[in-house]
Structure formats: structure tokens, C-alpha cells
Write a structure and sequence with these properties.
By secondary structure, the protein is mainly beta. The chain is 7% helix and 45% strand.
């Protein structure tokens, strides 16, 4: 039985983005924020504004992965946006336990690529080539599994 006395490490995760199975090195930007609307009626005896929730703001999500020979799937997905035939996908990000089972699952809906950054090249570098993709989305849900 998995140990529940410790939080899950953040280095063991998987991403299903609707293409072939690709391992990512980093995921960031799983953020939601609520705008605050302030309102005060002139006849109110209270000398402060009331606050209430407004529109949600969603951050773009950044995915980083190694560059592999013959792998054009990100470019093909990006080109669907460039050709005005936006192909939206559901992206599922799972935080895994020591048995490789998903324990926290973010299901991100209606994703499409807004930025594609190819790797930097440097003659004296001692690291792998990394591509970076930024995706816009229309919200996500979080599921905590036992």
C-alpha cells in the first residue's frame, strides 16, 4: 500500500495531449485566478466596497520536451492553428505515485498551441535539445484520486 504520510513528488508525471506518447520534462502554468468586482451603493451605511467574484483568468500552459528525430507532431498541431482550422484538444496531466498510478489529474479542455519555441543551439553546451510549447485553454478540472 502506498505511503500517504508524505506529499507526492512533482518529478513523476505524464501528459496525454492527444498525439503519440511523448515524455515531457516540464509542465507549468496550471493557474486559475478570479477577478474581483467591487461595488458600493451610495446609501450604504458601510464605508467600504463589497467584493464579489467576477470573470476567471486562465494562464497559458507551458510544456517542455526533448527533441527527437522525425517527430513533427507539435509542428503539425501548430500548423492547424496557422491555417485557421484550429484543432482543439483535451490535454490530461497526471501526477503519478511510486506505482505509476495517477493520483492527481488535471483535465485541460479546448487546448491549442499559441507559441512554439524551438531549442537554442550552443556549440559548447552539455545538455539535450528542448522544444517549448505554450497552449491556451478554456479551463481545467482537478481530480484527486485515492
Amino acid at each position: 500500500m502506498p505511503n500517504t504520510d508524505f506529499p507526492l513528488p512533482k518529478f513523476h508525471f505524464s501528459v496525454d495531449w492527444g498525439g503519440s506518447k511523448i515524455a515531457f520534462t516540464e509542465v507549468s502554468g496550471l493557474n486559475k485566478e478570479m477577478d474581483i468586482l467591487e461595488h458600493r451603493v451610495g446609501s450604504s451605511p458601510e464605508y467600504f466596497k463589497r467584493k464579489m467574484p467576477g470573470m476567471q483568468k486562465l494562464s497559458n500552459i507551458t510544456l517542455k520536451r526533448g527533441v527527437f528525430v522525425g517527430d513533427n507532431e507539435f509542428f503539425e498541431w501548430y500548423n492547424t492553428v496557422a491555417q485557421n482550422t484550429v484543432q482543439k484538444r483535451t490535454v490530461t496531466i497526471s501526477l503519478l505515485d511510486e506505482n505509476h498510478e495517477p493520483k492527481v489529474v488535471w483535465s485541460v479542455k479546448d487546448c491549442f498551441i499559441v507559441s512554439l519555441k524551438c531549442t537554442d543551439l550552443k556549440a559548447d553546451a552539455n545538455e539535450v535539445a528542448i522544444d517549448t510549447v505554450e497552449i491556451a485553454n478554456h479551463g481545467f478540472t482537478i481530480e484527486y484520486k485515492s
